Amino acid sequence: MPLRSDWSGETCPIARALDVLGDPWTLLILREAFSGSGRFEEFRARLGAADNILTNRLRRLVEEGLLARVPIAPGARRHLYRLTAAGAETLPILNAYALWGARHTQGGESGDAIGIQCTTCGATATSADTCTRCGSMLTARTTAWARPDVADGGFHALAGPV
């Protein structure tokens, strides 16, 4: 398969998923949406993305049904971007990236991994989709992250779908 091709029509579901999720900015935007970012300015500040890149990626995530563009108030010109149910289903993918990255890449500092906590039992997750202690599915409602780039370092509940 050629690199950066349109894989939306492929019979392979991995190729079709890659067509939607294969851009690094997409995964980072989803990470920030799970962390509670919703305004364009929040995404820009957290990611350092150029306005045109961020605009295009947010638009694509809305078109693909992973984010919803919701007016801040009725009739408002400004919008929030919120995870949809389909967007919330990407959590195990992001958890898998976090776990794999912690195990197999060099970090800037020790302790720089995203901590994944099952809020059902309080255990630190070692699996991307299921708590190895209590067996609960790790969803936006049952998962908290402690991110090394967040000042207080504590666990924070994830934002779920609209």
Describe the protein.
This protein has about 160 residues and is of the alpha+beta class. The chain contains six helices and five strands, in the order ααααββααβββ. The chain has helices at about 15-20, 25-35, 40-45, 50-65, 85-90, 90-105, and strands at about 65-70, 80-85, 115-120, 145, 155. The longest helix has 14 residues, at about 90-105. It is globular and about 45 Å long. About 20% of the residues are buried.
Shape: globular
Distance between the termini: 36 Å
Oligomer: single chain
Quick one: how many beta strands?
Answer: 5
Order of helices and strands: HHHHEEHHEEE
Rg over CA atoms: 16 Å
Number of helices: 6
Helix content: 25-40%
Q: How much β-strand is present in the residues?
A: 5-15%
List the strand order in the largest sheet.
3-4-5
Helix/strand structural class: alpha+beta
Spans of at least 5 consecutive residues with low confidence: none
Largest sheet: 3 strands, antiparallel
Pick out its properties.
162 residues; alpha+beta; 3-stranded antiparallel sheet; two-stranded antiparallel ribbon
Provide the fold topology:
Layout lengths: L12 H9 L2 H11 L5 H8 L3 H13 L3 E5 L7 E5 L1 H4 L2 H14 L10 E4 L24 E4 L9 E2 L5
Antiparallel strand pairs: 1-2, 3-4, 4-5
In short:
This protein has 162 residues and is an alpha+beta fold. It is built from 6 helices and 5 strands.
